[in-house]
Amino acid sequence: MVKSTSANLSPRKMPRQARSQATLEAIFQATIQVLLSEGRQRLTTIRVAERAGTSVGTLYQYYPNKQALLFAVVRRHVTEVGEQVRRAAESVHGKPLADIVSAVVSAFVRAKIDRIDEARALFSVAGELDSRVLVVESEERGLAMLTAVLRTATDAKFDDLPTAVYIFMAAMIGSTTYMIEGGAPPSILRAWGGQLESLCLGYLERAARSIHNDSR
Amino acid sequence: MVKSTSANLSPRKMPRQARSQATLEAIFQATIQVLLSEGRQRLTTIRVAERAGTSVGTLYQYYPNKQALLFAVVRRHVTEVGEQVRRAAESVHGKPLADIVSAVVSAFVRAKIDRIDEARALFSVAGELDSRVLVVESEERGLAMLTAVLRTATDAKFDDLPTAVYIFMAAMIGSTTYMIEGGAPPSILRAWGGQLESLCLGYLERAARSIHNDSR
Amino acid sequence: MVKSTSANLSPRKMPRQARSQATLEAIFQATIQVLLSEGRQRLTTIRVAERAGTSVGTLYQYYPNKQALLFAVVRRHVTEVGEQVRRAAESVHGKPLADIVSAVVSAFVRAKIDRIDEARALFSVAGELDSRVLVVESEERGLAMLTAVLRTATDAKFDDLPTAVYIFMAAMIGSTTYMIEGGAPPSILRAWGGQLESLCLGYLERAARSIHNDSR
Amino acid sequence: MVKSTSANLSPRKMPRQARSQATLEAIFQATIQVLLSEGRQRLTTIRVAERAGTSVGTLYQYYPNKQALLFAVVRRHVTEVGEQVRRAAESVHGKPLADIVSAVVSAFVRAKIDRIDEARALFSVAGELDSRVLVVESEERGLAMLTAVLRTATDAKFDDLPTAVYIFMAAMIGSTTYMIEGGAPPSILRAWGGQLESLCLGYLERAARSIHNDSR
DNA sequence: CATGAATGAGGTTTCATTCAT
DNA sequence: TATGAATGAAACCTCATTCAT
């Protein structure tokens, strides 16, 4: 078995033919499905190949080993969610705090819920050391991005911006993960966007010396 | 869905001899240590026994199977953290919201940080279905407890208490998990109690029709 | 009583490639050989695989577990012996008692002796509950078959046919098993067919009201 | 584990104190009970000790190893059954064939049925090499004994006495084993003595030059 | 003597990975 | 390229036996 060295975790090839592309995607989706239906412990290469409608041999043509498969699932998820949030953040540069929080939180929640299967599958892999690498990378990009946009808020200045941003992110990501994974009731799931916005905004307002503080 | 055998997850015997008691505890601690140093995937019964300074055979005298070992770790953690929070909550019945949040949050944070090894170990097992059972149970007790205490807050009434409590808990547990697991810098770790209190209180004040709302 | 899991005792796949077919048969024969040379207690999957010239992994591609291996050996033996006897019995419908007994007994003895390795191997597994299932099934078919043919005997009618048939079968199978397993001397082994015929015919004549009883 | 060398199979001590005697017997009976209720594969020393109401340690005070336990069960059974038959045979020296067969067969059947638990338990151990040794020994004594008594039959002389005796024994023991183990219906079980007598006598009369052959 | 905790070899089974077809 | 049979290391778990208490 391949030990968790950081080598060899990237896909083997990016095939140009359409058929190969389809196979690759089928394997990718199958990985998620097996993770959801069987759990991390029962995720085997043969099961994935079967669910994808191919054979193990073919699977190994695209991914050098099993870790790479998990890596791919995690990477795609965090990349895409990150991308959605980045776009939202860019569109509210230089707006008031409430607008920024609203845009960022709702983009995040939408992205997660659109990919809820991926999110849950990812969770069962969260304990894995190798997946952590990707998540930490993405976390750093997220912190930088949020720091940048919050600095432009027209109506709030933060004494300790790094801390505020960290808590913001922890609240947004952590509590959403808790909810998705904990099997929250539909009523909560529906209200999630608004509640999370309230949670984050409530915190950030407390953390900011609001510019109009005195005029209240 | 992941199959849940649910068979025989309770410890095999509670031995009376002092030697046995020590062995039992050594195995318990070894499980946590191996989980932390090697991760869930590399947690093997032999490795646990070795780290505990015994043999596999002995391990199996106390736990009927590997799942039971994990079960024991998770159960003890959630039980003890839950207990700390419960005590704190009882001591602030009928106090103002800020006091309640402060007491609950700081009890939770203290309990988690006192058991930070257990908490991290628990995380790498979070994906396992069997552990979920315990966590869900404990969640339900937590919700009931928080609902009860928040109802007694002298200065806040909630239109939608169930939702507010759920978000409160998700924020408290979820973001703490995120932080502990994400490897937060010491500066954050130190500030955690206060920040988390701010996060939760900010939210709950927004969610409450504050009694003195008008007099502001 | 011995617990009967009764799960998954049928072979895993019937492969089409010639290589696989050969492997399957090699494993089958190896099971018998190991049973004979080492006994049931020392029949291990690794030993079987080694003797078959393959690896354990391969063994498990064909049989889902060890029980299934034993099951296969027993099933094939009782099926084939049963088949031989059935054919012999059909060929003597409507003949005199002596002819019927002669045909049935000699077919049985020949079938057993032709497969004497299987027969001995089977014996060391006889205590196993799962094998009993098959044997009992085959016993029932045997009783039905013998009942049918004895009813057509031209020169004998039985007051209590069910009992007579049962004793006939018990004598035929039981004493042959005893002999094969007890390590009878070659002289006995050679004479077995005739002696067993004598044993069974002696009994059945006593059990029948012989039609020509009076004219003797 | 002790390999099946023929060493060390005898009980460790024959205790004189009554309490020890009782313990020894309890272990003996427990072995049979476990064999019947769990099967050979699940016969473990701990299970036997528990069922006997003692501890493994104590068990090992009386038997040097597990094989010795099985050995003891088998030995006692074959010894006692053999003894019953021997007494019956002695009582019919110099009597007619029918009397001899009747005495021997009914003694055998009675002895077996009186110890039917032992008989069944013994069966699940039959495949074991070590038990075979005892059975073969006892078989030899049996053959000698039956040869001796049949030679005194007043009304029958055998051309090939060794063969006749062997078949007699195989029929008696083999078919009884088949019946007991096959789970014969009660009707058969009740009729067994008479039927078996008929079986054996039918054969032996055919095998003998009956002295009064001419006078028929 | 009795107990039962401890040991660890050995058995069963799974699964990532390779490679001949 | 695709397939899936083969491999064997490694995981889980059991149990005969010993020995300190």
In words, what does this structure look like?
Chains A, B, C, D: GO terms for molecular function: DNA-binding transcription factor activity; transcription cis-regulatory region binding. Chains A, B, C, D: Residues 44-63 bind DNA. Chains A, B, C, D: Keywords: DNA-binding, Transcription, Transcription regulation. Chains A, B, C, D: This is Transcriptional regulator, TetR family. Chains A, B, C, D: Residues 21-81 form the HTH tetR-type domain. 4 copies of one chain form a homotetramer. With 216 residues, chain A is mainly alpha-helical. Chain A has 2 domains: 18-63, Orthogonal Bundle (Arc Repressor Mutant, subunit A); 70-210, Orthogonal Bundle (Tetracycline Repressor, domain 2). Helix content of chain A is 72%, strand content 3%. Chain A has 9 helices and 2 strands. Chain A has helices at residues 18-38, 45-52, 56-62, 66-91, 97-114, 116-123, 129-151, 161-182, 186-207; strands at 156-158, 208-210. In chain A, strands 1-2 form a two-stranded antiparallel sheet. Chain A is elongated and about 60 Å long. The termini of chain A are far apart. Mean pLDDT of chain A is 89; it is low at 1-6. Chains in contact: A-B, C-D. Chain B binds a DNA duplex (21 and 21 nucleotides) through residues 15, 17, 19-20, 23, 44-46, 54-58, 60-61, 64-66.
